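Here's what a typical entry looks like (Cytochrome C biogenesis protein):
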Amino acid sequence: MLVLILAYLGGVLTILSPCILPVLPFVFARADRPFARNGLPMLLGMALTFALVATLAAVGGGWAIRANQYGRIVAMIVLAVLGLTLLSSHLAEWISRPFVALGNKLTQRSDAEGDSAWSAAGLGVATGLLWAPCAGPILGLLLTGAALNGASVQTTLLLLTYAAGAATSLALALAVGGRVFALMKRSLGAGEWVRRALGALVLVGVAAIALGVDTGLLTRVSLASTGGIEQKLIDAVRPAPAPQPVAKAGEPLPVEGELPSLAGATQWINSVPLTAQSLRGKVVLVDFWTYSCINCIRSLPYVRGWADKYKDHGLVVIGVHAPEFAFEKEPQNVIKAVKDLGVDYPVALDNDYAIWKGFSNEYWPAHYFIDAQGRIRHHHFGEGEYDQSEDVIRQLLTEAGQKNLPGGYVQAGAQGAEAAGSGDAQRSPETYVGYARAENFASGQVAHDDAWNYHAPATLMANQWALDGHWTVREESARLDSANGRIVYRFRGRDLHLVLGPSSDGKPVRFRVTIDGKAPSADHGMDTDADGNGTVTSQRLYQLVRQAGGTGERTFEITFLDPGVQAYAFTFG
């Protein structure tokens, strides 16, 4: 219920966003008509269409996006015709002739003919196909959840609730606008001029959407910023993380549930497909991970160590690879990462999140410990407490009848990105570059999915970041369109990592890193040299900074010497 309320409030706040402006003329086009037969059907059609299109775009892949593009073209033609009919009654009569058999749906009807609710609903459908609201934190959260959890009634309901919130605020605007237009007609006798003005505004709105102004320029015009309000709403309703269970020595572990089905895996690496039934009699550790996640990478040395240490004593480790970014769904990318990271135990590709949902999991990494009877007896989320986790493994192996287990604890001795984090509680937070989850962006408003020339400010506050150069920012990443573009970040932490990918044609992208305007020298990461030089060759996490002395606040800058690079997310250690 709280999530539904959050979605509704997020939709209501959309009216304050500048990128709603091109839609307003379509809404006001019938402001002088009865609301029940015109405004209400139009807003319902708009909300339903937006919810459907947003659901398909989030879970349906590229085909849904392409189909919607064709729908947008048709909708722009329909609404352009509407604008022309409002401009001229003679033109309206001429245009309407071919459509008489269809109920004259694209033109205004005379008072004698009455209003058509179906006509208004059709206008709402066309508007819904064009509506591209600013993806603030709330809509970004909904779209991310939709992509993660797949198509479902809940997904569509949340998006429909968001659209209903927007429709509510538009309905209030429509009610006020209707009274204003009626007053103008009565007091000034200006009905025909009001009608023509609305027609002109509709055409301007169509042109703005056709040129991408609604998702480009207008999203950069700070008439009203709702991002801070939306983030406070999210923080207010977000539940606290589940407490970690504490395994006490000598006490039996509780039963938390049964091992869910593993049949949802789309592919297996290093193994034939495994099933819950075939694993009976074995102690199983299920590790949910994804290969660009720094927390997962830092826990891998321990997971690999446990797999090697106890594989001859009845332990089976299964890595369930649940992708966060689209490129992590590509099997060849995962196969390469598994090899590069030295993972030789079975890995299930969970591209559809079927296993993830079977465990009701919410975290990367997440470790679930299953006994020889197929029961979940313990879990751990995130990094740390590795000795306790190994104690759980030993306890379950002992229960299964294993004896003479090797002593001591796995000592990782990890290097590079796998080394444990600094533990600095003040280090910068994980920061996404794509607009769906971007925060603390300092180059103005983001132009969604449109090429734009960004400028980095001369100075940044702590945890602020900026783009500089010609970039196209998409939902989960930003692509550099011209050489010598930059990303600047004022960060705190020992390590700075950035998930990057080469150009879409696979060509490597050269880059150069500076810290406080100088070459990193001893503070360079494993993917850069002392002069700050490096190359993006594949889609993965790159360690760009490892400060040799401390975790102080610094200004990081990366310049890409070639176009095409794709940047996804910063993480810090």
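The domain at 257-418 is CATH 3.40.30.10 (Glutaredoxin).

More examples are in the samples folder.
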